[in-house]
Amino acid sequence: MLDKKGAEPLLKVRNLEAWYGESHALHGVSLDIHEGEVVTLLGRNGAGKTSTLRAIMGLVGRRSGSITYEGREMVGLRSDLIARSGIAYCPEERGIFASLDVTENLLLPPAVRPGGLSVDEIHTLFPNLKERARSPGTKLSGGEQQMLAIGRILRTGARLLLLDEPSEGLAPVIVQQIGKTIRELKARGFTVLLVEQNFRFAQTVADRHYVMEHGRVVETVANADLNSSLDRLHEYLGV
Amino acid sequence: MDDFFGIPAPLLFGQLLLGLINGAFYALLSLGLAVIFGMLNVINFTHGAQFMLGAFVAWLLLNFLGLGYWWALLLAPLIVGAFGVVLEKTMIARLYKLDHLYGLLLTFGVGLIIEGLVRNEFGSSGLPYRIPPELSGAWDLGFMFMPVYRGWVVLVALVACIATWLVIEKTKIGSYLRAATENPALVQAFGVNVPRMMTLTYGAGVALAAFAGVLAAPIYSVNPQMGSNLIIIVFAVVVIGGMGSILGSVITGFGLGIVEGLTKVFYPEASATVIFVVMAIVLLTRPAGLFGRA
Hints:
The structure holds two protein chains of two kinds.
Chain A: E1 11-20, E2 23-33, E3 38-42, H1 49-56, E4 62-69, E5 72-73, H2 79-84, E6 87-90, H3 102-107, H4 119-125, H5 127-131, H6 142-154, E7 160-164, H7 172-187, E8 191-195, H8 199-205, E9 208-213, E10 216-222, H9 230-237
Parallel strand pairs in A: 3-8, 3-9, 6-7, 7-8
Antiparallel strand pairs in A: 1-2, 1-4, 4-5, 9-10
Chain B: E1 3-4, E2 7-8, H1 9-40, H2 47-65, H3 69-90, H4 100-122, E3 138-140, E4 145-147, H5 148-170, H6 172-182, H7 184-189, H8 194-216, H9 226-241, H10 246-266, H11 274-285
Antiparallel strand pairs in B: 1-2, 3-4
Helix pairs in contact in B: 1-5, 1-8, 1-9, 1-10, 2-3, 2-4, 2-8, 2-9, 3-8, 5-6, 9-10, 9-11
């Protein structure tokens, strides 16, 4: 029911383990993401959600297991080569560069494939970025920084977006705008893997949810079943 | 235009010019150090030896291949820069994960080895390198004689500093460089080959030192110590300007050259120490340097 049977997943993760120095962050994560899906990773702080995104992107110290994207094994690749194969990452801390203005931040990630959004299209999605084009990146409000962090990875032609808590710390009206953007990206055919603590927000954008605990995926829930699974999820999420 | 505060004008302007010339070298060298430190987090103690190598390569090109000053200005930075690329790839790159101190010790050691090898081969008395005929002679400015070559050095150093600043602040490559200085892991996760960028940045910083070395060859005699004599002052300049600040190192370089020149006129006894006095004052009042971010 949950998987589109027959089609090979766009991203297939099997038994992914990851370490930061001596600390063992992921203990065998497996998940599938199909083309065009929006999937969230839910779970408490420290469950391994951010580590999963960072491990897919090659930003952890050491990892093992298997990560295939479009059928290619990526687990041994350097992060720049992973990006070049069409995966883009928006970190939790947003990673806006203080010494670059808004336009320079927007144009920083190199195009990895044809077919990315044009700067005009990004300005249509996020009009604030156009008005503040010459401001230093870190002079923007939190919401504008989040728009910039998402906007700049839409240009590159990457088809799989890894978004780490885009709603965190933002006013409700901005969270709604981010939600609308994610639905629009899905309509444009982007595939999104989203880390969220706020599952009310996750519910408004996602097709499917993976629930993580102690560095593993413990449960898969279709968005339609989310409300009926609430009691069970409360245990995992502590909400 | 006879005298200022009882100082004869030719003396004053002569020392000011000398200060500007020294300042030009301080600026060029501290600029390369700042670029390297910003990107690699390595304090490049080999910088003085690489400056000296630039001058020696110019001398070798002239005496063994018959290639004169203009060719040296082009080729010596490329040759010494390529040596820097090899040094970065084979040795310095292995130390990025360790404390800064290891990079400092390695580059310090490599600098001593290079200087020793050159001294062994060429002796320490110094080799002559003539001013190219196009740049010899002097202009009569009315209040003083200005040697053409010295004017040329100040001009070229200024142009090189401004060009470096423009590349870093106004180009795409510069925006990668600035971003990678802040957060190299994220820039790499966007698909930029950051390790290669670090190698090339080191090569460019070293090439800049060698370029300064070629400019210096006709002014100072070409000798193995020419770099280590200068580099102590350049490190003081970098500390005063603020580690890693591009514009800061350029302004501080020229500024301190002039301060040094004026001290020679007004209080010659202090001229050898004035820069270190300024350094001590700056460290006590603004530890991050005049242009550094704390």
